[in-house]
Amino acid sequence: MSPSERVSERWFLIAVFAAIGLVIATSFVLFSLQTPRPPPTGNLTFSTASVIDGNASFNVQNLSHGPYVYSGFTFRLIVNNFAVGPVALGPNDSATAVTLGTTTDRISWIDADGDGAVSVGDRFLVTGDRAQLASLSDYEFDLQWGNAWAARVFWSTY
Q: How many CB atoms lie within 10 A of CB 77?
């Protein structure tokens, strides 16, 4: 192989690697210029839970693909990684009692518009049984629609 053939072979390899680098760089730039997709929204989202006088409340903040009649819902209450449920969601303004260990808590759904369906603006209350919720505890409330999806909210009583 003559020296001129070696030089032309080197230039050919340099050109190939430069073309590959250019394609990679262009792909990276075009990908980074895309607008980010919005995060997927759930069918139902809750507001942040508020703890007042030792009891929690939260509202339905967003709802899509509804309305959802309350009788199709079940819920789970998880306290410090111990769960109770699924339990059927009770009707408007009722208090469903759930017992976890030696503690009984009550879950209430307040139908703000009176349509019998869980909708935006409806309120959920999680209270102790004639007392405050257990102190120094982590809570999770999961509202499940059949086997299709669940909405969750978390709070602590520290």
A: 19
d(CA 108, CA 89): 8
Q: What is the secondary structure of the chain as a DSSP string?
A: --HHHHHHHHHHHHHHHHHHHHHHHHHHHHHHHSPPPPPPPPSEEEPPPEEETTEEEEEEEEE-S--EEGGGEEEEEEETTEEEEEEEPPPTT-EEEEEETTEEEEEEEE-TT-SSEE-TT-EEEEEESSSPPPSS-EEEEEEEETTTEEEEEEEE--
CB neighbour class for 152 (10 Å; exposed up to 12, middle 13-18, buried from 19): middle
Cβ contact 139:145 at 8 Å = no
Express each pLDDT in 83-114 by its tens digit.
Answer: 998 999 999 999 999 999 899 999 999 999 99
pTM recorded for the entire structure: 0.72
Tokens linked to 109: 């759904």
Distance CA(85)–CA(100), nearest Å, equals: 10
